[in-house]
Specification:
- There is one protein chain.
- The protein is α/β, with parallel strands linked by helices.
- The protein folds into 2 domains: 135 residues, Aspartate Aminotransferase, domain 1; 239 residues, Type I PLP-dependent aspartate aminotransferase-like (Major domain) (Aspartate Aminotransferase, domain 2, 3-Layer(aba) Sandwich).
- Helices cover 43% and strands 14% of the residues.
- It has 15 helices and 12 strands.
- The mean pLDDT is 96.
- The structure holds 4'-deoxy-4'-aminopyridoxal-5'-phosphate.
């Protein structure tokens, strides 16, 4: 069998840190252990029935068996614009300010290729969602990291960035509610971001994947709600989390016209748009009843409360996430995040994601998903308690 050498580009892609961990969990499960998987980010609930019903109906319509228009169906683009008007009071021009995406991930990987030349600088949060690094590597660009520290509520401190870095940076990725820290943004922070972006001509990409998940009665803010945000950036919205549609691959980029048209141009060369029936179902999700979104948010909030109260009761004084479906748990100083995750897996059969997998500033934490039932979360707390790492 011939072995064909891969291109330098493929060889330069970052290694998947979590692949090894997933393999290890598989091995433990195969040995018959009941592993509680709190390490991954795959929504556990089904897509609401009215959305599935729309897909079923639309799949039977021959109109959807043809190629979709290159840039997506007008009704879906309009639905995205209407969604922003209704949910955030943000007015969007559907003709120029929306690009349909094969899930948020596709947009996040495409954008660096739209704006960065080899060697250009992009600002990314640390800790941060590893897929950001993939787009940067494909564009052969350079990453400058913005540390997210607990004492700054996991928001980047722009004062800390060097003037030289700011003047070189062409793009910035932000993500609130945040994966992995569960932090949310404030209006002041977004205003400060718009100001910085204007001053240094930086294009801001706000990843709003967890936009629908905010706790204690606080609805997460859209970046586009800040005055002037559309002048400097876009938001990436996905239906994956809001409507439990992770497998459907549908999202959209929304905001600044020049960014949207660059994404459309790249996508015109890469794909034809999504299956028409998926687009019809996505429009149904965005324009139909939003009761399912509220119910889902309440479910995650109940799970968060069970987990955090449980951990507090065993003497682990973690802080509580404000949004997203992750809890970011500070671990005892004597362990590295990988050591701690290994202890939990080997001795308690619980998988968590070590913070170091999200970047240098993720060290000292592990990420736990709220994607298991309350019973499983309680069982996980019981197993951690039995390890006697913490004192009550
Ligand atoms: N951004 C963040 C922070 C995420 O956690 C995810 C999903 N894990 C995505 C974007 C991408 O989601 P999707 O591609 O399913 O839209």
């Amino acid at each position: 069998m011939m072995q064909f050498p891969q291109s330098e580009l493929l060889n330069s892609l970052p290694k998947q840190f979590f692949a090894g961990l997933v393999k290890k969990v598989g091995e433990y499960s195969a040995q018959g252990h009941d592993v509680i998987n709190l390490g991954q980010g795959n929504p556990d609930q089904p897509t609401p029935p009215h959305i599935v019903a729309k897909l079923q109906e639309a799949a039977a319509n021959p109109r959807n068996h043809k190629y979709s228009p290159f840039q997506g169906h007008g009704y879906l683009i309009q639905a995205a614009a209407d969604f922003y008007q209704r949910e955030y009071g943000v007015t969007i021009d559907p003709d120029k300010e929306v690009a349909i995406l094969f899930g948020g991930k596709a947009g996040l990987v495409e954008i660096p290729q739209c704006f960065l030349n080899p060697g250009d600088t992009i600002l990314v949060p640390d800790p941060g969602y590893p897929d950001y690094w993939s787009g940067v590597a494909l564009a052969k660009a350079k990453m400058a990291t913005m540390p997210l520290r607990e004492e700054n509520r996991f928001l980047p401190d722009y004062q800390e960035l060097k003037t030289d870095t700011l003047s070189k940076a062409k793009l910035m990725f932000l993500n609130y509610p945040n994966n992995p820290t569960g932090a949310t943004a404030t209006a002041e922070f977004f205003e400060e971001t718009v100001k910085l972006a204007r001053e240094h001509e930086i294009c801001v990409v706000h990843d709003f994947a967890y936009g629908a998940i905010g706790f204690d009665g606080n609805k997460p803010l859209s970046f586009l709600q800040s005055e002037g945000a559309k002048e400097v950036g876009i938001e990436i919205y996905t239906l994956s989390k809001t409507f439990n549609m992770a497998g459907w691959r549908v999202g959209f980029a929304i905001g600044n016209e020049s960014i949207i048209s660059a994404i459309e141009l790249l996508q015109d060369h890469l794909y034809v748009s999504l299956f028409g029936a998926v687009q019809e179902a996505a429009a149904e999700a965005l324009t139909g009843s939003q009761d399912c979104v509220k119910e889902l948010n309440d479910l995650y909030e109940r799970r968060r409360n069970v987990l955090i109260e449980g951990l507090h009761s065993l003497g682990w004084n973690v802080s509580s996430p404000k949004g997203s479906f992750f809890a970011w748990l500070k671990i005892p100083e004597e362990f590295s995040s990988e050591q701690f995750a290994t202890i939990l897996l080997e001795q308690a059969h619980i998988m968590v994601a070590p913070g170091i997998g999200f970047g240098k500033f993720g060290e000292g934490y592990v990420r736990v998903g709220l994607l298991s039932s309350e019973e499983q979360l309680k069982e996980a707390v019981r197993r951690i308690s039995d390890l006697e790492i913490f004192e009550k």
